[in-house]
Amino acid sequence: MRIIIKPLGLVVLMTAVTCFTAMPRLFPPLNAGSITPQNSPRLSFTGLDTASRKVSLAETAWEVYADPGAAITMRALRVDSPPLKKAYHFDVLNPGPNLWSVGFHNRVKDTVTATKSARLTFWARATEKRDIAVVIQSINPPYAEDSHEIVSLTPEWQRYTADIKIEKHSEGEYYLSFLFGKSQGNVELGDIRLVTAQ
Question: How many CA atoms lie within 13 A of 39 on its CB side?
Fold first, then answer.
C-alpha cells in the first residue's frame, strides 16, 4: 500500500509540524539558583568533598502537615525536564498566618553527636514568585531550629544550594522541613539532597 500526500496535504502537514515545534515547552528550562542564608552563617566546607556522606531521605518519611484551620494537598508529579524525572506538587489552599502553618518535612534518621556542616540542594518553582523557608529542626517541642533559610521561588525551575549547620540531636532524628505558609498558591520541589561532613 502506498501513501500519497497531495500538495495541499503537504502544506497542512508542514504547518502542523511548524506550529508544534514552536509551542512553548510545558516545563521551562532549568536554571541555576542559590539560597542566600538569612539567619545562619556560611560554614566552612573544607574536606566535605573528600569526607562526606549523603543522608538518606527516605521517600516514605516525607509528609505534609497543616496547623488547625490551614490546608495543603500534595501529589507526585512527572517532570520531563532533565535532570528531574519527578517532583512533588503542593496546593497551599489555606496558608495560615505563619510560614510554619503548612509545610512538608522528612523525619531524617541521622544521629548527630556534635555540630556539623551540611549542604542541601533541591530544585523548586512556584506558580508565582513567593518565599518559602527551609529548616533543620528538632522533632520534639518546641521544635528548636538549627538552620532557617528563606528561599525566593520563581515560576521557572531552579536549583538551590544552601550551606547549613546541624546541631547535636541525641534522639537520632531531626526534621528537614519546607515551610509554605502565609500565602496561597502552588509550589513544586524535586531532587532534594542532603550531604553532611563526617
Answer: 11
Task: Give the model's pLDDT for residue 181.
Answer: 95
pTM score: 0.72
Q: How far apart are CA 94 and CA 17, in angstroms?
A: 43
Alpha helices in the chain (DSSP H): 7-22
Biggest distance spanned by C-alpha atoms of the chain = 76
Write down all domains in the chain, each with its CATH number in brackets.
26-197 (2.60.120.260)
Within 10 angstroms of residue 8's Cβ, the number of other Cβ atoms is: 8
pLDDT tens per residue, range 149-180: 999 999 999 999 988 888 877 667 889 999 99
Residue 107: name the closest of 62, 164, 59, 169 by CA: 62
